[in-house]
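Table S2 (continued). Query chain:
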Amino acid sequence: MSQSSIDIPGLPGTKAFTRPLNKEDVDICVNVEQAFTEAERCSKEKFCYRLTASPELCFGLFVENEDGSSTMIGHVIAVRSPYPRITDGSMEMPENWRSLPDDEPVYVNGELIGNDKNGDSAAIHSVAISPDFQGKRVGRALVAAYMKYLENGCFGLSRAILMAHDYLVNFYESVGFKNRGQSESSFAGGVWYDMDYDL
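Corresponding output:
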């Protein structure tokens, strides 16, 4: 699994690296996701689905510990979507997904549910930083590294899309996303803004 060293100005002297994630990383993703309110957290089952359906679009940030082990302190979790905006359906997962063919998209009432392997948007559903590492510019370093990873990879994507809380719009704009206005989604009862990044 390819690792890339990353410099995080807010963590001087810390050795850090990024790498794509896979289904073996489910438990550490669940741990990092504790950064969100309970209503906004991804479930363990949904992590299993996303890390199986689109592992190439899921990305972790790790720090090396003194004993040589590493700890994931942040992640970006995404699926493929054919749409230019995040939809409520893309945030879901198909029922009985484990028994479905990998290459067959699932539609319910005309809406795509979860991942579409031919989608040209990276639909980002989670950008999470462990609470102990928040406020140290770790999120900025993670998102910048992820966008570079998408731009340099051969993923057949034309854009990255996400929904942001109003207080995070400026942050995402500062790393290259464009604000496309208030989202139609009411995920977790919040007000969100659609944002995109041309690749």
